[in-house]
Design goal:
Length: 152
């Protein structure tokens, strides 16, 4: 895990984070937290696909931006995800610390490691892109649930 600033990211990482930031405008959250999160994934073939969070009156039904981006990629036939970037705001305010994937998203993304092998690079940013954590899914979920039955 590395703490970085935006300028310390590589070109592709900055591009991915900027696309995640654009996706914030599509976020839907009229409820209390008003968190508006954007995420973007990069495929092995260098395609970038973004998603944003979709809140629900029943908060357990909320869809995080990360899973929305993965689902959007899936809808375009891409499961070869190699990188993810996340950024967001809190209503009209800023989020001071980098936004980290929740436990549900970590387990959701773990499935892609099973599909693809390898790892997924994860860039987590605060609203201002001044505090960024660069990590990976394996680092975020070192001992994932592996299931109790074989894949068919
Ligand atoms: Zn999540």
């Amino acid at each position: 895990m590395m703490n970085l600033t935006f300028d310390e990211l590589g070109n592709e990482e900055r591009e991915l984070l900027n696309e995640a930031e654009k996706a914030i405008t599509d976020a839907y959250n009229p409820y209390n937290s008003q968190a508006r999160i954007g995420a973007a994934v990069r495929t092995k073939s260098n395609k970038i696909i973004a998603g944003s969070n979709i809140a629900n009156v029943s908060s357990t039904v909320n869809l995080c931006a990360e899973r929305a981006a993965f689902a959007a990629a899936n809808a375009e036939g891409h499961r070869d995800i190699i990188a993810l970037a996340i950024i967001g705001t809190d209503g009209d305010g800023v989020i001071e610390d980098p936004i980290m994937p929740c436990g549900v998203c970590r387990q959701f993304m773990e499935e892609y490691l099973t599909i693809n092998g390898g790892d997924i690079s994860v860039i987590c940013s605060n609203s201002a892109k001044s505090k960024i954590i660069k990590t990976s899914l394996k680092e975020l979920l070192p001992l994932p649930y592996a299931g109790s039955s074989e894949k068919k």
